[in-house]
Write a structure and sequence with these properties.
With 427 residues, the chain is α+β, with helices and mostly antiparallel strands. It is built from seven helices and 22 strands. The protein has three domains: 89 residues, Nuclear Transport Factor 2, Chain: A; 148 residues, Nuclear Transport Factor 2, Chain: A (Roll), CATH 3.10.450; 118 residues, Glucose Permease (Domain IIA) (Distorted Sandwich). 21% of the residues lie in helices and 35% in strands. The longest helix is centred in the first third of the chain and has 23 residues. The chain is globular.
Length: 427
């Protein structure tokens, strides 16, 4: 073969071969490289646990603080010495005092799965939401953290047969709601004076952590019908503060609470003629007796100045508060005074001033509550006190729109009466 023809043959043969090798036989390194990167990401990806800690290679140990158990007791059992524990306590001091750990609280330890089993994390749960982390992976780092709270809106209704507490319990509703409602209606309703047939509707928040119910959040709206009169309550933020207002925009907060006890029952009312169980003769009773267990906290019905703290022969331990130039209130038969309750001290509405007792002339524990208007004893339950402050005029239209949306929600809640009603079995 002539040299020129031979060169041409080699050229025509090798060029297609090279092209085939490049595009077909050489591996696609770009694709493999992406696979390697993806695989590397998967290998290095670390999943955070319930405390947002990276503990994939560690062993988890969960337990509960036993009675009289200390941090040293817990950590010594996991191969830690006293010096390490002392260093942890010192490092934690600005964040949490581990001398105050409590029994029945949960804790979790994460340690290495080797023969040393060195502790890398210690987590102590202050409550279902908040916890303290001791990070021992390098130097000691202690910090507080909290779980995410999921809030769900719930609507419920109920009819009073015995008490608000029992009604909620019988309907599978947390009794924490009764306390919330008592706070909302502290100026309108005495919940131990409610009667069979009263009913309520409530829109409120329930808080959950990891799908576990942890408590009642805010009450958004409610209507409580007491003695056939509806009492509306709408939570609204005014001037950066959540308060409750009625349907026309008046604050539910008034100058005076409905009662000096959060939960009580009236055992003897205001009257001009009552037979005294000890003195054995009829005499005026210009106050209201609230039956309550010994030691029940007694709260000031309004802001004011303490003018009298003393023992009286018939009233026992007695406190008197001057609220303004018109009104004063008195609290008798106390078992004890709260700390700092002395003449000349100012108190705030709802502040605890003492506890229910039977001091003086009393057959059993109760509070004898007195109320003066312009120096004359009056029936507290018949006084009409104005709202402390209504919705600001520049916010009234916004409030009405907010109110209407909540009221529509309340109106859609059905109330089923379990006993005979003269009007209807459902409202």
């Amino acid at each position: 073969m002539q040299p020129r023809i031979k060169e041409l043959f080699l050229f025509l043969f090798f060029i297609p071969a090279i092209i085939i090798y490049i595009f077909i036989l050489i591996p696609d390194y770009s694709e493999d490289e992406s696979d390697v990167i993806a695989d590397s990401t998967a290998v290095n990806q670390v999943h955070e646990n319930e405390y947002r800690l990276q503990v994939d290679s560690l062993v988890e140990f969960k337990s509960v603080v036993e009675k009289n158990e200390t941090l040293s007791d817990i950590l010594l059992a996991h191969n830690m010495d006293f010096e390490q524990i002392i260093n942890i306590v010192k490092a934690a001091r600005p964040v949490f005092d581990f001398r105050k750990i409590q029994s029945d609280k949960n804790y979790t330890i994460y340690y290495q799965s080797d023969s040393i089993a060195a502790v890398k994390y210690f987590v102590y749960e202050i409550d279902p939401i908040n916890y303290v982390v001791c990070d021992l992976t390098d130097s000691i780092e202690v910090f507080k953290a909290s779980r995410d709270i999921v809030t769900k809106i719930r609507s419920v209704s109920g009819v009073i047969d015995n008490s608000l507490y029992m009604t909620l319990s019988e309907n599978g509703i947390s009794d924490l709601l009764s306390s919330k409602l008592a706070d909302v209606y502290a100026w309108q309703i005495d919940f131990y004076a409610i009667q069979k047939g009263d009913f309520f509707k409530v829109i409120f928040e329930e808080n959950y952590v990891n799908d576990n119910f942890i408590g009642i959040g805010k009450v958004n709206a409610a209507v409580f019908t007491h003695r056939d009169k509806p009492f509306y309550a709408f939570r609204y933020n005014m001037n950066g503060k959540d308060e409750f207002f009625d349907e026309i925009g008046n604050s539910l907060r008034k100058a005076f609470l409905k009662a000096p006890l959060r939960f009580s029952r009236i055992s003897s009312g205001y009257t001009n003629k009552r037979f005294h169980p000890i003195l054995k003769y009829y005499r005026p009773h210009r106050g209201i007796d609230y039956a309550a267990p010994h030691g029940t906290p007694v709260q000031a019905v309004g802001d004011g100045l303490i003018t009298d703290v003393r023992w009286t022969k018939q009233g026992g331990r007695f406190v008197k508060i001057k609220h303004n130039s018109v009104y004063s209130s008195g609290y008798m038969h106390l078992s004890s005074y709260a700390k700092g309750i002395t003449p000349g001290k100012r108190v705030q509405q709802g502040q605890i001033i003492g506890r229910v007792g039977s001091s003086g002339l009393a057959t059993g524990p109760h509070l004898d509550f007195r109320f003066w208007k312009n120096g004359e004893l009056v029936n507290y339950l018949k006084q009409e006190f104005p709202s402390s402050h209504p919705i600001n005029k520049n916010l009234i239209e916004d409030f009405f729109g907010y109110r209407d949306s909540l009221k529509s929600g309340l109106d859609s809640i059905k109330v089923h009466f379990p006993f005979d009603q003269t009007s209807s079995s459902e409202k």
